[in-house]
């Protein structure tokens, strides 16, 4: 009898639990993280690498590309066709097939110090003005034979390649400016360079654009927060927004006050949705057994 009378109470509690469970934010979330497709970069082996070394170097590339967030670049590996080739020979072979894009070369130094060659175009293609080219050859290059074409190549740490690649693609840096001066195209022992100190001050992945529904963000009109922002020709905004802490945490984002980029009216989100930018909650890069890894 006692069991019979307690059953409805148990059932009601169970139904209430299920109803609340279905209302939890992480189950009803319509949050959209707008990710751009990664740029594709060809990686070429000119010497065989031990499997464990190759695996580690590829992991360094993924770390530098922020693959666990929104990858900047994706590596396409060619491990057999160009064994024994020089960088110039690889460039010539690819050009003959109409492939003019930059690429990287993994060679014997890749195993020793984790660096690769970043290969671009020839100097005479970049500096098409003959006077500018002659001036560059006179002041910025050494050990160059008459009539020799100079291939632009930069020695980079594997972890640095994705951000370096993006900086060049976006016009934020010029490979000519990144070359050691004077530039000796025949010097294969040039030290590897990096745009960042990945252990001490690593770069952050680009902050993504977020489409958030009304129940996924919060708004404030507090001048303490709104006066941290200035809209050109308009002054301080009336309000600023941020993701709710639980929503941000679920997506590995940081809830931080920011401007509304625009109202979002797509059919895949409810009315009142907005577009905002939030930073990734990144891990910490540390050296483990001599290799850089992402530590949570």
Alpha plus pi helix count: 11
- The pLDDT mean sits at 86
Computed over alpha carbons, the radius of gyration is: 26 Å
How would you classify the helix and strand content by structural class?
A: alpha+beta
Give the low-pLDDT segments.
Answer: 1-28
Strand content: 15-25%
Description of the molecule:
The chain is α+β, with helices and mostly antiparallel strands and 296 residues long. The chain has eleven helices and 13 strands. The protein has a five-stranded mixed beta sheet. It has a four-stranded antiparallel beta sheet with strand order 1-7-11-10, with no helix packed on it. A two-stranded antiparallel sheet has the order 8-9. The model is unreliable at 1-28 (pLDDT under 50).
Kindly summarize this structure in a few lines.
The protein has 296 residues and is α+β, with helices and mostly antiparallel strands.
What topology emerges from the helices and strands here?
Layout (H helix, E strand, L loop, with lengths): L1 H21 L2 H4 L3 E3 L4 E7 L5 H14 L8 E6 L8 H10 L6 E4 L1 H6 L1 E8 H4 L3 H11 L10 E7 L3 H9 L5 H4 L30 E4 L4 E4 L2 H4 L13 E4 L1 H6 L11 E2 L10 E4 L6 E5 L2 E5 L1
Parallel strand pairs: 2-3, 2-4
Antiparallel strand pairs: 1-7, 4-5, 5-6, 7-11, 8-9, 10-11, 12-13
């Amino acid at each position: 009898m006692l069991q019979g009378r307690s059953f409805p109470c148990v059932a009601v509690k169970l139904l209430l639990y299920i109803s609340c469970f279905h209302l939890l934010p992480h189950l009803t979330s319509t949050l959209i993280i707008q990710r751009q497709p990664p740029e594709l970069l060809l990686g070429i082996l000119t010497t065989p690498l031990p499997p464990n070394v190759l695996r580690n170097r590829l992991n360094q590339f993924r770390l530098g590309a922020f693959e666990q967030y929104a990858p900047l670049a994706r590596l396409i590996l060619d491990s057999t066709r160009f064994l024994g080739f020089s960088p110039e020979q690889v460039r010539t072979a690819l050009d003959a097939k109409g492939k003019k894009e930059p690429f990287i070369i993994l060679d014997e130094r890749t195993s020793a110090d984790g660096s690769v060659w970043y290969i671009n175009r020839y100097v005479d293609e970049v500096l098409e003005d003959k006077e500018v080219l002659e001036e560059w050859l006179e002041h910025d290059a050494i050990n160059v034979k008459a009539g020799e074409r100079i291939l632009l190549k930069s020695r980079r740490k594997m972890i640095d390649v994705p951000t370096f690649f993006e900086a060049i693609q976006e016009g934020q840096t010029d490979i000519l400016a990144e070359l050691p001066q004077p530039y000796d195209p025949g010097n294969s022992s040039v030290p590897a360079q990096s745009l960042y100190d990945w252990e001490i001050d690593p770069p952050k992945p680009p902050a993504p654009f977020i489409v958030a529904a009304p129940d996924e963000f919060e708004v404030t009109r507090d001048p303490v927060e709104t006066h941290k922002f200035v809209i050109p020709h308009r002054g301080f905004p009336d309000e600023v927004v941020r993701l709710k802490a639980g929503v941000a945490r679920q997506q590995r984002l940081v809830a931080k006050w920011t401007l509304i980029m625009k109202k979002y009216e797509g059919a895949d989100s409810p009315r009142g949705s907005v577009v905002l930018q939030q930073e990734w909650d990144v891990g910490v890069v540390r050296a483990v057994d001599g290799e850089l890894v992402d530590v949570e």
